[in-house]
Design goal:
The structure is a single chain. The protein is α+β, with helices and mostly antiparallel strands and 152 residues long. The chain has one domain. The chain has a three-stranded antiparallel sheet with strand order 1-2-3. Helix 3 crosses helix 5 and helix 5 runs antiparallel to helix 6. It is elongated and about 65 Å long. Bound molecules: zinc ion (ZN). The site of zinc ion has 7 residues, from helix 2. GO terms for molecular function: zinc ion binding. InterPro entries: Znf_SWIM (IPR007527).
Length: 152
């Protein structure tokens, strides 16, 4: 069994493939206190300290990232499952889905034309979108901190 001590000395390295066939390298480490951190070689991670790859992996969607080796799958789960990083990843996943849903409502309201009812509907949808986006922004900040091995 892989212990957190092993991971601190020798990080788990995963080669992932994304939707357009590119490959990236994700590194998973656990410190002596068991805090798990993850980094990715992609541009978004370099720019923002988080990326969809890390969220998908921490949400245990390893197959979506092109990981089919059951041994790698098991080792990753052993390290990440049940950690605050996994919880933060599920939270951001949910909140980003809420943003998409609210943005769709705004887009629909805009197609209705400039009537008074349409403007009321648009105002409500836009307020909901703003709230969802603020929540997603907070959740991203928490996830980014977790992925860096920090705590809230
Ligand atoms: Zn990435």
């Amino acid at each position: 069994m892989l212990t957190t001590h092993d991971l601190a000395n020798r990080p788990l390295s995963l080669t992932i493939t994304d939707d357009d066939g590119g490959t990236e390298t994700v590194s998973v480490r656990a410190d002596a206190q068991g805090a798990v951190s993850m980094t990715c070689s992609c541009r978004r991670y370099a720019a923002e300290g988080w990326c969809r790859h890390l969220v998908d992996l921490a949400c245990m969607r390893l197959r979506d990232c092109g990981i089919t080796d059951p041994d790698v799958d098991a080792r990753f789960e052993e390290v990440v499952a049940g950690t605050p990083l996994e919880i933060a990843a599920n939270d951001i996943d949910y909140r980003l889905a809420c943003v998409s849903q609210q943005a769709e409502r705004v887009a629909q309201a805009l197609t209705a034309g400039p009537s008074r009812d349409a403007m009321e509907t648009l105002a409500v949808a836009a307020r909901d979108l703003a709230q969802a986006a603020e929540s997603a922004s907070d959740a991203l900040r928490r996830f980014t901190r977790r992925a860096a091995g920090g705590i809230d």
